[in-house]
Amino acid sequence: MRKYLKRSMVFILFILQFQACNNTSRQETEESSEAKNESKIPESGTFLSTDEMDIFYQIKGNAKDTVIIIHGGPGMDSEYMVADFKELSEEYTLIFYDQRGGGRSSLPDTTKNLEILLSIDKHVEDLEALRNYFGLKKLNLIAHSFGPALAVNYALTYSTNVESMVFIGPIPPYMGNFFERYDESMRSRLSDSELKALYDLNNEIIYGTDPVGACIEYWKIGLKPRIANGLSIEVIKGNCCAAPPEAIRYGYLYTGNVTFASLGEWDYRPQLKEINIPTLVIHGEEESIPMDMVESWVENGIPGSKLVSIEGAAHFPYAEKPTEVWNAIRGFYSDN
Length: 336
Prior knowledge:
The chain is of the alpha/beta class. The chain has a single domain, classed as 3-Layer(aba) Sandwich (Rossmann fold), CATH 3.40.50. The protein has helices at residues 26-38, 79-82, 86-89, 114-117, 120-133, 147-157, 178-188, 192-207, 211-222, 245-261, 269-272, 291-294, 317-320, 322-335, and strands spanning 44-48, 54-60, 66-70, 93-97, 139-144, 162-168, 279-284, 306-310. Helix 12 links the parallel strand 7 and strand 8. The chain is globular, with a radius of gyration of 19 Å.
């Protein structure tokens, strides 16, 4: 990873567990990094998007190499990843951030055009605003679940600003029949009573008086089909319900639907060959997101990319099989 992760500023966003390495030459970034250090950027806070939304970030770790984390969702926030990335934060500086429309970031005004304000294009510009705010020349990204869709859109828009990408449990690079197959797999792993409880709790989150409490109960069930058979949901140390009540409700009601819809019937496969960025894809073998669809990121996809399948893991391999995941990421960085 030394090739990509040159000395970066001390402060790295705790945003989407995204590897934002300050991978620039000392000549190019010395003044920018020194200016940021001298300004004593706090370990958590907000920066402004180009349309003046507050984007919350956290920095974990203080190693010289920087990584930016992109959380899934959409409509979630980065807190569900933080605790489970502790081991990685002991080796790299991690910047996590909450995507707009969730967590501790701004919730766009619902009287405005949310199709624009919550579009994937706005999320891409927020990531670019992050890069500029922290004075990073290039980003190394780690993205989970829906996060790779944001990462690939950023890479296609700002190809020269990305050094490497790691996708963990990614959605496929094309829509196809993804939703039908994913839904069928998830339903097969829950009882009828659990499915009804999820439906009721989803409504409680949106319309009830205690969205946090309903969220906690929702994920007690919702994590079950997302982890490997035989594992307890306690293997996930991150908090899926750490956001303010109004943000939890907003994410379920607006962000999740609007941001996903902004992808349309997405198919990035024709463009993947244009991405000349070292990429590692990590996918659990018990994942409900179909492996054969995920393989398209690599097979006739991003040139030189690599797929690592993790036995005994599903949607959260970094928590279910952390040793295998961190070793795969370490090897990827050392090789590149």
